[in-house]
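Researcher: Structure for this, please.
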Amino acid sequence: MSLRDDAAAIADDLVRLRRELHQRPELGLDLPQTQATVLDALDGLPLEITKGKALTSVTAVLRGARPGPTVLLRGDMDALPVEEATGLPYASTNGNMHACGHDLHTAGLVGAARVLSARREELTGNVVFMFQPGEEGHGGAKIMIDEGVLDASGERAVAAYGLHVMSAIAPRGIFAGRPGPTMSAASDLSVRVIGQGGHGSMPHTTRDPVPAICEMVTALQTYVTRSFDVFDPAIITVGNLHAGSLRNVIPGEAHFDATVRCFSEEVQAKLETGTIRVVEGIAAAHGLDVEARFRRLYPALVNDADEYAATEATIKELYGEERYFPLPKPVPASEDFSFVQNEIPGAFVYLCACPPDLDPSTAASNHAPDAQFDDAVLPDGVALLTELAVRRLART
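Model: Predicted structure, token format:
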């Protein structure tokens, strides 16, 4: 039997596990029920298991029968604070939702552990299974790296692989990806402008922060269009702006928060200093004080050229050319698997899981309260991860 056959043979078990996880989504770095479910699912397999200290992670090491290098497979486990509106019989009822498909990632990684454990005698080297909390803005991958996940087998992993399901965009079963920059770096920009309030009829007696903060928002848009190469772009979106409480009162302060996206370390570093310079300069021109903070969240996710080429070839060999779609450009969302790929070469691909009765061009996207993922794709994801691990160990 092939690895694909092995994955198909446990499909029903994986669907049950995925739906169990879907009904009990947990947030952030503390996922005690999810961790317990994963540990139960891994029970009896020939794995060396370690639980996280600063987060409820699970690291499982499978040692092949013959010595060799180590590869890492990753699945994230956390959900989002979204009230589910799918109406599915196994929908969440606790106010949170696996609206980004991490329940499929977790079940798929359990499946990969089961399939590869059954073939332990054939493996030359080790596989680390990285069950990670806190992908949704908490940087759980970085914490797991700090706790030693990349060296869990006793030596640094030589390659890492991950995938992400999508609820829309393409039909079910399509794999998509690209070499090089694939997902954006993410940063936060928070700005507080401090002036002196007063009566709206006498602005000359105040230091009005409102015109200045409006100027900052528009100046930042001009800044990114005039300071960065269009082929290595930056995005600044102000999602929250607040000033005052009454129409005839000039407030004493105003603030805004922005998300900042880009696709390279060089641009992220330039944004870190440039955005602060822009807002400080405008505040000074208006005679105002300003408190500005730029906080890096995730680096850009960059697929290693060699590892991605091997991944693309594996997809086409397993599923045919028609099941692969080359992304023409990077995706301006962010993913903390980037921390892993900053340390070791790897590849990260998308697997489309749009239910067949929905139109992928209009279906609800990831993070939406009505996003749906067809768990029929689970065996395909398991087969790809296991094939990548086996082939990478055989290459070394």
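Researcher: Any notable elements?
Model: The chain has ten helices and 16 strands. The chain has a mean pLDDT of 97.
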